[in-house]
Amino acid sequence: MKRNFLNLKFLTLAILTTALITSCSSDDSSQIVDPDPTEGSRWITLAAAKMGENPGDGNGGTLLYAVSIEDAKDPTKSIAPFDNGFIAPSNRTARLQSSEDGSTIFNISYAGDTGGNYSKYTVNGGQNFTKTGSEVSIVQYVGTAPRWVKLFDGDKTGAAVYVSTEHETDATDDTYIRTNAKIGVVTLDLVNSKINEFEEHSIPLSDEEEANGYYFSRIDMPVLNAAGDKLYIGGRLSKVDPTTTESESDYEILGSKTIVLDYPSLSNPTVITSTVGHGNTNGYRSINAFEYNGSVYQANQNDPNGSHILKIGADNKYDNTYKFNLSDALGVEDAYILAWRPAANGKAVIAYRHAGSVEGVAGAQGFFALADLNTKTAQKLETIPYDPDFYLFQYQGFVVDGTEIYVTQAPVGKNGNIYVVETETGEVTKGAELVNVAGSHFIGTF
């Protein structure tokens, strides 16, 4: 016989209030004046995270400003989202996604009174973003601070997830049995603004892992397999001391794990485990796994041997013959993948930090590398300027346009630039200036 007591509920959310962001116009003649992209081109939307109470926290809200791809590449142009940007509805840093062609921004507000509300906007250039379609709330499914991403299915579907945990103990002697991790997954029709499916599942680990106190404590970053019939969800494992049920911090890191569901039904949950990588696969704020050439490539974090790119094959299992350790590839120690994005040629830009990163005003210094999924090699993009306050932990978005990948470079509270990486050659081109304000930073391109 057993009884349960609640350890964590996903609806018990700490709501942070922040000051209202106001925007104003600028008379700066260098500020871009919304030119339409030329035929065959696209918009590039810059996302800027305003400081809340501390430099680099991004809790003051998110501002957007869109420019043509031609202006994004022009170093004589200046972009000032903090002065002229569109305020993305969100109490804290917005969780943004964009259509593949850059014409639409998808947003689910994070925390606060509007938390969990989905909305989408047509990109018209500059600060002009026109709300389109109806809003839909996913609060009843995943709370007011949802983890969500857009699936790569032609801009049709988004997926949001949560996990709640509950310790199970024996009712007779109160001894620990296991921690039950219950996940919820909801898929959202991005075109028609409606809920597609919602399912909840209890996700067990092995008997030995559970007896030792391991459980899924966070999940995030769903991605479809190439066949479109499985959904992979990254996860983080935590551990309690089975004798006390107190949380532990110094424990053995297990092999990286991913939850696999049938799609679109969101049924039949299973767990797969890597023997190559260890640590988390849930990422943070940027998409952490991508389909390429029939397989899914996934970054891991908090690996004792540094972050890996892991491979899940067409059989929906980890390919443990594929070994790509970023620390080894770059010749550094404890490389940590903060965000990444591959182009269609299998070459990717990776935002990372490592054991030698300087501690800046908001956290450890970040860098960009160009990696090749096929050769399992990587090199630091040396021509991008770096600064101790170049903070990439909250980085979210990369624009992929053919073989080019667009990134933002600006230290916290300092001006910077857009940089364009030609992944075929490794050439890096300096683009438009990014005008910053005190304590704030840029979180990517969309």
What does this structure look like?
The protein has 446 residues and is mostly beta strands. The protein has a single domain (2-7, 11-445), classed as YVTN repeat-like/Quinoprotein amine dehydrogenase (Methylamine Dehydrogenase, Chain H). Helix content is 5%, strand content 44%. The protein has 5 helices and 30 strands. It has helices at 69-72, 81-84, 139-142, 207-211, 326-330, and strands at residues 2-8, 43-49, 62-68, 78-79, 86-88, 95-98, 104-108, 117-123, 129-137, 147-150, 157-170, 176-189, 194-202, 214-224, 230-239, 255-262, 270-278, 289-292, 295-299, 308-312, 324-325, 336-342, 347-353, 367-372, 377-380, 399-401, 404-409, 416-422, 428-434, 441-445. It is globular, with a radius of gyration of 21 Å. The termini are far apart. Keywords: Signal. This is Lipoprotein.
Question: How would you concisely characterize the structure shown here?
Answer:
This protein has 446 residues and is mostly beta strands. The chain is built from 5 helices and 30 strands. The longest helix has 5 residues, at 207-211.
Defining traits:
5-stranded mixed β-sheet, Methylamine Dehydrogenase, Chain H, about 5% helix, 5 helices, 5-stranded antiparallel β-sheet, about 450 residues, mainly beta, disordered N terminus, Lipoprotein
The total of helices stands at 5
From the N-terminal CA to the C-terminal CA, the straight-line distance is 53 Å
- Radius of gyration, CA atoms, in whole angstroms: 21 Å
User: What proportion strand?
Assistant: 35-45%
Helix amount: under 10%
**CATH topology-level fold name:** Methylamine Dehydrogenase, Chain H
Tell me, briefly, the overall form: globular
CATH superfamily, by name, is: YVTN repeat-like/Quinoprotein amine dehydrogenase
